[in-house]
Structure prediction request, 172 residues.
Amino acid sequence: MASLGHIAVGMAAGRAWATSRPARAMVSFAALSMLPDVDVLGMAAGVPYGAPLGHRGATHSLVMAAVLGLAFALLARGRGRRFLPTALVAAAVAASHGLLDAMTDGGRGVALLWPFTTHRYFLPWRPIPVAPIGAGFLSAEGLAVAGWELVVFLPFFAYALWPRAADGPMSR
Prediction:
């Protein structure tokens, strides 16, 4: 994926979750939705793509999504958010990353069930084109994938960015 879909899902979740400060929640959930891709830093350090800690490995697993959800909820608890609902929503946002990546048409699959197995999975339905990694993303192919994601995930962006009734000029 070109990451626009991940950002869109995070923004929409943040908008749905926010009771105040929707922009802050959208940025926080968008960052959370992108966090599993921290594994690309390992590629620069020589971690092989197919290794458990390689790209689409452990950080993309459902177990890691649960850990991220718990950590996110602990941080949010200090801001007065209820722990369990926040943990569940945050874990779902983090899990969406691996599940969306498992719907791409390329790569080596996603280690969704790590640490129980290092097997890499794809979902049966794979409509999302895979984007080139790194500088290759700026190629014609990478930009085409980004454009595809922008169109497909437009409803998520629209929901996230559509002004709420209380945010509009008529509410003042």
Summary: The radius of gyration is 17 Å.
